[in-house]
Amino acid sequence: MLRRLPADVRRGTTVRRAATIADVAAYAGVSKATVSRFLSGRSDVLSETTWKQIQDAIAALDYRPSQIARSLKGGRTRLIGIVVADVTNPYSVAVLRGAEDECQRAGYMLALCNSGGSHAKEQELLAGLRAYRIEGLILNSAGIAADQVSDALPDGLPIVLLDRKLPPGRFDFVGLNNIAAATEATRHLVGHGFGDIALIAEPITGVSVRTERALGFRQAIAENEGCTGTVIEVDLHQPDAMQQAVARFLATPSSRRKAVIAASGLVTLRTVQAIQSLGLHMPDDVGLVGFDELEWSALVPPGITTIAQPTYDIGVAAVRNLLARLAGHRDEPHSTIFTGTLIERGSSASEAGLRPMAVPAPAQPAAGLV
């Protein structure tokens, strides 16, 4: 026989305290052990009447079992945290697919947090993850210092850095060889007759991936006498900032063909939008190579040349590195570095009848431990 609702337990929209397993047991007129059997799905050991009583009690009390608490009974949560700097970035979405699949294969769950590029919010998220007793962390940092990451998390928590490094190399890292990728993109444009090239990126300071791509770009420009290279930083949160940046670059007098390297998937999207808004055409008015192979890259006329990252494999590698640490590996922090692939399309094409210049091929480091 069902009992009355406890007076201090929430009912409807009035919240007092959350119902406990003891409340459910008392309301249903059974033991806590019987409720635990119900929650674990052991219907074979409960009568149909008892099963229905517990089901009705849970509904009446709005009881919500704590998955974390249940996991802690076994001493483990099997929960991995992942903090990304921008969940709207196509790169983050693509990497998450690989990370989530690998977690599921290993019997772990992935808890996603988005810092939105804010150092303060990242600190809050890192501290808040303590309460969820994560077993490990994958961090795509907003750019804060390594000691701040350590201070915000329990000692000994395995951490793998994703895409963005934190000095002085205290954690495992998984990402792209950004210097080589930016060098290849620049050499490709130079080889196709572009001599006035801009690398457009979000604010660079403190973000290793942007710093490295800018370095590779500058090195490749320096190899080619007569070529001009400009690094342009754009705050994508400012309306029309990208359109204004592209317009200023194209308005600068030059005797050589102009082109842009967009330093991320999001920058690529905004650059294409700016070019279209200005009524310009690729590659006649401006050439373009974008980082990250996006679903629409081949669909925007004349097709966007991209540096594709093996994003799925990067996500898988980040989880596997973390699982190795969880299994007890205590070797020195190491980096797993992947190589980008240039996918050539019409946005970087040579002028009609112009034969591509011979440009030294960039070194192609193999993916693996460094």
From TrEMBL:
Domain HTH cro/C1-type residue range list: 20-64
Q: What's a single GO MF annotation on this record?
A: DNA-binding transcription factor activity
Alphabetical UniProt keywords: DNA-binding, Transcription, Transcription regulation
Pfam families hit by this protein: LacI (PF00356), Peripla_BP_3 (PF13377)
UniProt superkingdom? Bacteria
Domain named HTH lacI-type is located at 19-74
Query: What CDD domains does the database record attribute to this sequence?
Result: HTH_LacI, PBP1_RegR_EndR_KdgR-like
Respond yes or no to whether keyword Transcription regulation is given for this record.
Answer: yes
Q: Cross-referenced PROSITE patterns, in alphabetical order? A: HTH_CROC1, HTH_LACI_1, HTH_LACI_2
- InterPro entries, alphabetized: Cro/C1-type_HTH (IPR001387), HTH_LacI (IPR000843), LacI/GalR-like_sensor (IPR046335), Lambda_DNA-bd_dom_sf (IPR010982), Peripla_BP_I (IPR028082)
Q: Does the keyword Manganese apply?
A: no
Q: What is this protein called?
A: LacI family DNA-binding transcriptional regulator
Output the lineage of the source organism.
Bacteria, Pseudomonadati, Pseudomonadota, Alphaproteobacteria, Acetobacterales
